[in-house]
Amino acid sequence: MLKTALLDRHVALGARMVPFAGWEMPVQYTGLVEEHIAVRTAAGLFDLSHMGELYLEGPDAGRALDFALVTAPGKMAVGKAHYSMICAADGSVMDDLIVYRLAELRYLVVANASNAGVVADALRERIVDFDVTLDDASMRTSLVAIQGPKAAEILQAHINVDLTTVKYYSGVEAIACGVPVLLARTGYTGEDGFELFTAWDDAGVVWDTLMTAGAGHGLIPAGLGSRDTLRLEAGMPLYGQELDRATTPFEAGLGRVVKFDKPGDFVGRAALEAARETPRKVLVGLRLTGRGIARTGYPVYLPGATDAAGIVTSGTSSPTLGMAIAMAYLPVGHNALGTEVEVGIRTQRVAAEVIAMPFYRRST
């Protein structure tokens, strides 16, 4: 198991550690629901150092990423970021990403931990004809995230940037907690918040400073368990569940990410043009109207049908909303709001209905 620079702190805080994507990671500290509610009402502190950080630099960096990814990083302004995907030639999703333009000729691609190596290898293959270099800094970089409505208030006293000037999906180099960071106003919880990329060994001082600073504001450490329920409420996909090599962006409801109007060709373009016209399935949000909790892999039936029509990709009992929610794939044409379905839970079929996503949206 790979270990983050914060492992000893997690253990000292009583975290339950689990294997995740080859890393030993905290799944929860005081409890999933308590950590979830803290992020919704105050703030939570996350160790995300298992994520992959890939820097691309050179005269052709923008054009190389335009070719390698489905978005158009070359059109981004310096200091901005966007959500992106890397697709295979057949149009299927290899990973979803966040791309930052740090300078005119320098970009950062953040990949999921489970796919960091896959993305790095694919980018190396795709940029070979461009004047650009790739630096995989994943094992030299720590990532600490502070998320929640009080995140800015807690962080502001410990950073040399006016946080009101840092817009959503942007990044800026700064000094935080006494060390250099790349500060990004991004996150995976549905709340306002910040992600701080640091040198590997600087994670400890950032973590300790923010834990102390946030103690009087309701901040607590939060693990992967609450991160999953938070992102599900916010309708955010997880690779390996909503996204995989059997799914296209259009089937996942993320076709807007694919930029067909960018200059030049890009990997997967032809397949994605076809996929836009002929999706095989559609991702929906479900609310269970009967008793039970839908879990990943549970079958979904159309009323009266013997065979399953779809499958649950993610599900939970929502701590914020007080009801059981899920995301699931259904056949095309069965995604109208109010459509009634049944989820197979053990030996029962539990009633559910299609509802709009995201399930939760912050008020400001």
Task: Note down, in words, how this protein is organized.
It is a single chain. With 364 residues, the protein is an alpha+beta fold. It folds into two domains: 275 residues, 2-Layer Sandwich (Gyrase A, domain 2), CATH 3.30.1360.120; 75 residues, Elongation Factor Tu (Ef-tu), domain 3 (Beta Barrel), CATH 2.40.30. 20% of the residues lie in helices and 33% in strands. It has a six-stranded mixed β-sheet, sandwiched between helices. A hairpin with a 2-residue loop joins strand 2 and strand 3. Helix 2 crosses helix 7. The radius of gyration is 21 Å and the shape is globular. The chain starts with a strand and ends in a 9-residue tail after the last strand. The relative contact order is 0.15. The mean pLDDT is 97.
What would a concise description of this structure say?
The protein is 20% helix and 33% strand. The chain is of the alpha+beta class and 364 residues long.
Which SSEs are present, and which pair or pack?
Elements lengths: L1 E2 L3 H6 L3 E5 L2 E6 L3 H10 L1 E5 L4 E6 L3 H8 L12 E7 L5 E11 L2 E6 L4 H11 L6 E4 L4 E7 L3 H6 L14 E6 L2 E6 L8 E7 L3 H12 L4 E3 L2 H10 L35 H9 L4 E7 L10 E3 L8 E8 L6 E7 L9 E6 L2 E8 L9
Parallel strand pairs: 1-3, 4-14
Antiparallel strand pairs: 2-3, 4-10, 5-8, 5-9, 6-7, 7-8, 10-13, 11-12, 12-13, 15-18, 15-20, 16-17, 16-19, 17-18, 19-20
Helix pairs in contact: 2-7
